[in-house]
């Protein structure tokens, strides 16, 4: 281990994974709200992807799911009595609230936080800011536990700095790394941090979407950049095209992905594409010919096909300096325009040389693809050695987590099951054991 690398930390799908139509503006979430879910299959699909990446030689970590249904939130909202009584009352009087506090949405760890690697920060530590996720109630309750799990995973304050989430108000709406990409030569060198926002909160004259919410503001990204101690000329901001948000692109990672010297994005992704390109090339500096701007034209793949297939919600991974592999969901293979485009892409002269397909249907049906499920953390060798080793995927952990899923997870879940006190019991028992497997300590309220 001599050079820095990029680790992926995937969210392990929790035992209450279900489809409740909670995310206005997210087409899959709204369309699948009547479906029953399969938490066991969901967790195993995620584990299979994690194991495959570990087997390919990438550093792969696991982030634990949160305590759900979240009884402390129901108590905060006025329900009282025993846990079973609270579940029963919530199911009767506020079923959508019960669904919200039962969501396994923390699986999408691209939304867990924004991470700045040590090559970029003023104190040369890796900085983490959990995302407040204020736009959706069910996600706004994630950041505290997310912060605790990140601190239990990246423990050593010599290497890692943890900030609290930004103020939980729309002006600072923050969706984390789903709207953040880092470009660099080597992962350990200083890079360019690219922040994409949906609207300017304090400028009502600036463009913003009309139909669906812009979840992430410019002001949130600027605050994160200040906290992380980033240099102004290493930071680029770009506004998402409001029209694509209105078409269902609720996060920028549904329409663009970047890695090292490659930016792979759709023609319609940004409000001002020419400016985005110019700003990135200026920040990149000399050797501009090394930077790959791979723009997918709408004539080849319409925006609707991007949303249906999640083409851009892929993981773009470096196998060596000039060789990248793209990890895509099965939906890409089933979309003729997308699949034809991908075949031509890998034959062309971009650094992307291979496409690998993974079945992530359980997560995809709530609008989460391969990229949503992972948080990227670029690490130097010394930082890598400082991570909690119990969270790193390998043969033994894969085996152990599969047995753990078999022991605790159901293979079918309907909205009505969320009121079952047995589900709460199963979920807490599972997480209690998981904190031992991953050596996290007591990160959940029920353990305190
Ligand atoms: N990065 C992908 C995030 C997907 C997530 N979906 C959800 O929360 C849907 C949950 C439901 O509808 O049951 C979201 O929209 O934030």
Automatic annotation (TrEMBL):
Keywords: Arginine metabolism, Hydrolase. It comes from the Bacteria. The keyword Electron transport does not apply. GO terms for biological process: L-arginine catabolic process to L-glutamate; L-arginine catabolic process to succinate. InterPro entries: AstB_sf (IPR037031), SuccinylArg_d-Hdrlase_AstB (IPR007079). The keyword Hydrolase applies. Its EC number is 3.5.3.23. It catalyses: N(2)-succinyl-L-arginine + 2 H2O + 2 H(+) = N(2)-succinyl-L-ornithine + 2 NH4(+) + CO2. Substrate binds at residues 20-29, 111, 138-139, 215, 253, 366. GO terms for molecular function: N-succinylarginine dihydrolase activity. Pathway: Amino-acid degradation; L-arginine degradation via AST pathway; L-glutamate and succinate from L-arginine: step 2/5. The active site is at 175, 251, 372 (nucleophile). It is an enzyme of class 3 (hydrolase). Homodimer. Catalyzes the hydrolysis of N(2)-succinylarginine into N(2)-succinylornithine, ammonia and CO(2). Belongs to the succinylarginine dihydrolase family. This is N-succinylarginine dihydrolase. It comes from Marinomonas profundi. The lineage of its organism: Bacteria, Pseudomonadati, Pseudomonadota, Gammaproteobacteria, Oceanospirillales. The gene is astB.
């Amino acid at each position: 281990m001599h050079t820095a690398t990029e680790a992926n930390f995937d969210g392990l799908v929790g035992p209450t994974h279900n489809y409740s139509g909670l995310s206005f503006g997210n087409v899959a979430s709204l369309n699948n709200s009547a479906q029953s879910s399969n938490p066991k299959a969901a967790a195993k699909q995620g584990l299979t992807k994690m194991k495959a990446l570990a087997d390919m030689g990438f550093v792969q970590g696991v982030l634990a799911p949160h305590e759900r249904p979240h009884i402390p939130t129901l108590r905060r909202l006025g329900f009282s009595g025993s846990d079973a009584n609270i579940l029963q009352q919530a199911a009767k009087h506020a079923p959508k609230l019960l669904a919200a506090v039962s969501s396994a949405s923390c699986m999408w760890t691209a939304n867990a936080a924004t991470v700045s690697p040590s090559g970029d920060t003023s104190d040369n530590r890796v900085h983490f800011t959990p995302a407040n996720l204020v736009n959706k109630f069910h996600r706004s309750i994630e950041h505290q536990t997310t912060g605790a799990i990140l601190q239990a995973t990246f423990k050593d304050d010599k290497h890692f700095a943890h900030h609290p989430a930004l103020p939980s108000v729309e002006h600072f709406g923050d969706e984390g790394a789903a709207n953040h990409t880092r470009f660099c030569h080597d992962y350990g060198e200083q890079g360019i941090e690219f922040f994409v926002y949906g609207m300017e909160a304090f400028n009502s004259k600036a463009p913003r979407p009309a139909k669906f919410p812009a979840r992430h503001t410019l002001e949130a990204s600027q605050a994160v950049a200040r906290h992380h101690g980033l240099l102004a000329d290493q930071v680029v901001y770009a506004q998402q095209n409001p029209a694509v948000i209105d078409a269902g692109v609720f996060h920028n990672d549904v329409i663009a992905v970047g890695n090292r010297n490659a930016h792979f994005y759709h023609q319609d992704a940004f409000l001002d594409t020419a400016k985005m390109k110019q700003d990135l090339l200026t920040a990149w500096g000399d050797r501009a010919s090394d930077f790959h701007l791979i723009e997918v034209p709408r004539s080849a793949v319409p925006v609707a096909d991007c949303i249906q297939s999640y083409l851009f919600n892929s993981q773009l991974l470096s196998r060596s300096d000039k060789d990248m592999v793209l990890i895509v969901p099965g939906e890409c293979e089933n979309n003729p325009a997308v699949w034809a485009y991908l075949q031509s892409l890998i034959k062309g002269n971009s650094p992307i040389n291979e496409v690998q397909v993974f079945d992530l249907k359980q997560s995809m049906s709530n609008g989460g693809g391969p990229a949503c499920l992972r948080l990227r953390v670029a690490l130097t060798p010394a930082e890598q050695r400082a991570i909690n080793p119990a969270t790193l995927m390998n043969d033994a952990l894969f085996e152990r987590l599969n047995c753990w899923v078999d022991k605790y997870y159901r293979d079918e879940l309907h909205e009505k099951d969320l009121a079952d006190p047995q589900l709460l019991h199963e979920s807490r028992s599972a997480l209690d054991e998981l904190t031992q497997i991953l050596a996290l300590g007591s990160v959940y309220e029920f353990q305190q």
